[in-house]
Each structure stands twice: as structure tokens, then as C-alpha cells.
Amino acid sequence: MEFDLFREYGPALLRGLSVTIFCWIVGTACAMALGFVLALVQRGVSARPVQWILRAYVEFIRGTPFLVQLFVLYYGAPMLGLRLDAMPAGLLGLTIYGSPYFAEIFRAGLNAVPVGQIEAARAMGFAPATILRRIMIPVMLVSALPALVNFSIILTKETVILSMITVPEIMFETQTMMAETFAFAESTLVLALFFWVFVETISRIGRRLERRATHYLLDRS
Known about the structure:
Elements: H1 4-44, H2 48-63, H3 66-76, H4 86-111, H5 115-123, H6 128-158, H7 170-181, H8 184-220
Helix pairs in contact: 1-4, 1-7, 2-4, 3-4, 4-6, 5-6, 6-8, 7-8
């Protein structure tokens, strides 16, 4: 192990680390937001054409590799007049890729809300928006939290694919270090340790949120 390499490439690796975390946070947040909107439309709009379009979108995105979707956005979109730099294309790609999965998680969570609670709220004269905000969303988030955390962890690992379109995240900087020094063991070790720590941190946060969510449900009952 040539640990002196980390002194030379440390700043670049730290920059790549910050870019990876930024892409994960923004991509996950946008994918969750879009997925939640898709779940609400799937539940609230009964028109068949809308349901067919949403189902086709979900199945197509889930059925194609993220790398292919990213290449279409970055290399294929300019043919349609849409030119994106690497970073916006990467963030948009993460959003599109993650949204169908989050939509299905949210949809399952909304379907898990006890019908009795919704009917009781309607009997008390609550408006649909109030029922959604005060009853359905809290219960849905509690039941869907483990799946949300799990897929968020999956997205951390998908960020490495952004290096294929030259987004300067941790994988890109690690590959640069490999190409210039041939220090494959050191570079791979850095990459593996980072993702292990990153995923473990998210997992611990998720478990803490699950405990709080359980206490929340017990307090409501």
C-alpha cells in the first residue's frame, strides 16, 4: 500500500466525495418528490389513458438499465434539441430512474392506510386535502419508511454510473487515480470504504427513523 498517494490525490478524492453526496441528496429528493406525485395521480385519477401512460412509464423505466437511460439523456437528447451538461443530465437521470420505484413504494404505503381511518375522517367532515395531509401521508410514511431507506441506499451505488458521462464524483476521481498511478488496490480500497461508511450511515439513520415512526404509531393508537 502506497499511502503517500492519498496525500497527493486526497483533495481530488474529497471533491469527488462531495459531488457524490450532492448528487445522491438531490437525485434522491427529486426522485421521491416525482414518485410521490406519480403515486397520487395513480390513486386519484381514474381515467384509463392516464393510468396507461403512468403504467407504461413505470414499467419502461424499471425495465431498462440506468446506464442506458443516462446515455439516452446525455448523448441522445441533443438530437431532440435538449443539450444537458454532465451534472444536470446525471441529476435528471437519477430522478427519472428512481421515481417509478418510489412511486410504487408510496402507492403501496397509501393502500396500506386503514380504510376505517379515512371513513372516520370523512364522517367528521374533513376535506380530502386534510385527510391526505393529516392521516394518509403520516401513516403511509411510517409503513413505507423501510422500503424508502432501502431504495435510497440502492441509489447511493447507482451514483457511480454518473462517471460514465464524466460527472466528477468519487468513481470518476478514483478511476483517474488508477489511470495515472496504476494503484488499483489503493484506489479500490478507498472506493469500497467510502461506500461502506456511506451506506452504514444511511442505514443507522433509517433505523433511528423507524424507531421514531413506531413510537409515533403507538402514540396515535
